[in-house]
Amino acid sequence: MTSDLIGRGLQSRRPARADRTVSTPRVLIDNSLSIVNRTGAYHIAKDLCREFVPDVADVRYWRLGRHGPEGLFRKLSARLMMAEIGFAGNSERLLIRDDVGRGGFRLFLDPLYVLRSALAPDDIVLCHDTGPLTHPALYHPGTVQSYRHAYGKIARIGPGVVFVSNWSRDSFVSLYGSDFRFLTTIPLYVRSELFEGPAKPVDGLEPPFILTVGAFETRKNQTTALRAYRDGGFHRRGIRYVLCGSRGAGHEEIVELARTVPGVRILDYVPDAELRWLYGNAEAFLLPSLLEGFGMPALEAAYMGLLPIVSAGSALVEAVDGVCIEIPPVDPAAIANAIDAALARDPAEKAATANRLRTMAAAFTKARFLSRWRDLLMSNGMGDAAGKTGNRTPASA
Question: Is the predicted pLDDT of residue 397 greater than 50, yes or no?
């Protein structure tokens, strides 16, 4: 999987490593996301801050300065921050004014937080997905409105934008075109420490089973997966279905349906040792999601050699480089047929597919992810430092 640079080519502006001196402009990382978000995006933000702060970057948490709040104070801060965003919207009054200095720039770890900050063409915005705009029915109306304001501001200013998948980048371009300073993809990485150490069996669970890992949310589409399992008669054949993840928007409907389907086991948070065991003992991984920016659970499954059954044409397919079974996410019969196909594989076919998946997934390392971010940040701040105009060059996808 490669990262396409669109617009003004950063590669041509990247100085040699020997030229990277203490004069490198500072980066200000807006990590307001971490006040309210504790999903995968939070861990990505944490790793970026750990890598670059304070070596080449400073960090800011909304109006709270350099130190991220925790505990009850974090929850209260999150409510205040979201109330400010909802109330002020895209108003230019009372913005957070950062002095990034000559040649410096901001890195926003989520598009939403450009709303209450200054935004300049030299800045960079990390975009995981455009879900609130492309799939508004899956989000609260207030969330949809806030992201519309945020993306509108980004479109007006035209900063550099980084995406976690080409799928998300293409979705963004379809909405806002490509007239930005640059558009580039830096794929995510496998949290390899998840797979280090012993595996612990889940109490009361025996193979064979199908596995889904992901938050219980409407957009993950577990209800359709449950209907496919039920209608396919897999329980009568001795195949169980295990779902695990945190509780999100729409989890009540998912859990209620799961309780009516024999053979289904619902797990909440599971320790890493148990998750290793689940990935290592499942027959296949199933996620007919309606929306994904990248699809980390599918990549984790691939890392363990577990065949993914995922939504056709989605970021999930991209995340596993096409080594998967693609299914229409709203068709229970098609999903049941895909599960049948996965179960029907002979040992040699399973082993060959597992090897392909492990080899592919092993390339998605944290070191590669951080290296590409370091190159991007350095090239963004150097080379143009003496008199950037902020003019944009039309790009082609």
Answer: no
